[in-house]
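Project outcomes to date are best conveyed with an example. Our students and postdoctoral researchers have been running inverse folding experiments weekly, and each run begins with a structure described purely in C-alpha cells. The record below, which covers 300 residues, was selected by the lab manager from last quarter's runs and is presented without edits.
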C-alpha cells in the first residue's frame, strides 16, 4: 500500500497549504479505513480554527466521505465527535420525526431543541408531549427574547401579515442564534429537494451564517423515503399531516395545501417566501478562522 505522505507528495511539492495536505491525508485514511470518522474530533476542529483555513480543509475531507454514509452513520459521527455539544434542531415535521427516531437508536441521551415561537399549532404541542414520553427525553424549548405582547406593542399587531421576514427574525432566527452559541454543531432534518435554498446542502458542512458545523443526515432523502421510514418504524407524527399540511409552521403563516400545489405552498401564503431564515445559505461572511481570532482577542 502506498504511504499516505507519498500520496500527497505532489501536493506538497506544488506548495499547497498544510491544511489542504492534512485534509487529503484525512480523506485517504477514511477511505482506507485507517481511522474512524469519529476520530476527527472536536479538539481537532478547534485546533484547525486556531490555524486559519485548516478547519474548512478538515471539514472538506469528512464532507466528501460523508456523502456516502447512511443517516445513522452521520448521526454516530455527530454524537461521537461532539458529545453534548451537538443537538438536533426540530420543528417536528415528518423529516424531523424520522430523524429523532433514528437518533434514539444511535444514542439514547441525545439533545433535542425546538424554537417555540409561541404561535405553534395545538397539534404540534401535543406531538412534543408524545415525543418526550416515547423517547424519554426533555425537549429544550427556545423562545424569542420578545414576547408576543411586546412584539405587538413595538411592531404593531399581526406583524406576520406585513413583514413576515421580520417576524421570523424575531421569533425564530435570533432565538436560534442564541441557542447555537452553546453548541459546536447542530443537526437538522432538511432535504435538498425541499427548496432551492437547500439544494446545495451537504450531509456535513460549515454553517457560515451561525459559525459552527451543520449536520444534515437525511439531506439526500425524498419525501417518500421519509414516510416509508415513519410507517415502517411506527414513528409518531403531527396529525395535521393527515389534513393536507405537508409543511407545518406557525398558525398564522401555515395553511392546508390544495391539490396540485407545491408541498410548501401553504407556508407564508400570499408572500414570495419559502424559508424562515434558519437554513438560508450565507454565501460570504466571517470564516471559522475569523471567529477564532475574534474569540482570541476577546479572551486576551
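After processing, the design step wrote out the following sequence:
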Amino acid at each position: 500500500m502506498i504511504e499516505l505522505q507519498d500520496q500527497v507528495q505532489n501536493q506538497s511539492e506544488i506548495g499547497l497549504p498544510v491544511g489542504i495536505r492534512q485534509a487529503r491525508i484525512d480523506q485517504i485514511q477514511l477511505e482506507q479505513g485507517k481511522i474512524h470518522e469519529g476520530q476527527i474530533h472536536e479538539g481537532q476542529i478547534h485546533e484547525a480554527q486556531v490555524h486559519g483555513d485548516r478547519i474548512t480543509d478538515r471539514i472538506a475531507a469528512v464532507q466528501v466521505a460523508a456523502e456516502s454514509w447512511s443517516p445513522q452513520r452521520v448521526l454516530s459521527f455527530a454524537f461521537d465527535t461532539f458529545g453534548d455539544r451537538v443537538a438536533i434542531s426540530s420543528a417536528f415535521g415528518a423529516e424531523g420525526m424520522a430523524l429523532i427516531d433514528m437518533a434514539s437508536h444511535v444514542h439514547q441521551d441525545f439533545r433535542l431543541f425546538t424554537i417555540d415561537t409561541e404561535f405553534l399549532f395545538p397539534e404540534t404541542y401535543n406531538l412534543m408531549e408524545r415525543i418526550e414520553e416515547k423517547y424519554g427525553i426533555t425537549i429544550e424549548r427556545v423562545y424569542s427574547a420578545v414576547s408576543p405582547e411586546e412584539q405587538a406593542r413595538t411592531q404593531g399587531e399581526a406583524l406576520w401579515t406585513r413583514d413576515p421576514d421580520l417576524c421570523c427574525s424575531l421569533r425564530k432566527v435570533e432565538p436560534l442564534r442564541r441557542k447555537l452559541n452553546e453548541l459546536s454543531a447542530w443537526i437538522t432534518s432538511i432535504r435538498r429537494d425541499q427548496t432551492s435554498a437547500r439544494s446545495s446542502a451537504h450531509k456535513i458542512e460549515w454553517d457560515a451564517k451561525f459559525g459552527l458545523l451543520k449536520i444534515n443526515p437525511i439531506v439526500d432523502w425524498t419525501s417518500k423515503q421519509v414516510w416509508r421510514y415513519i410507517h415502517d418504524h411506527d414513528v409518531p407524527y403531527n396529525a395535521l399531516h393527515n389534513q393536507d399540511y405537508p409543511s407545518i409552521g406557525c398558525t398564522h403563516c401555515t395553511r392546508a395545501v390544495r391539490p396540485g400545489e407545491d408541498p410548501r405552498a401553504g407556508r407564508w401564503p400570499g408572500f414570495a417566501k419559502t424559508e424562515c431564515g434558519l437554513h438560508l445559505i450565507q454565501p460570504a461572511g466571517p470564516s471559522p478562522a475569523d471567529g477564532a481570532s475574534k474569540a482570541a482577542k476577546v479572551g486576551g
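The mean pLDDT is 79. The longest helix spans residues 164-180. The training component of this project remains on track.
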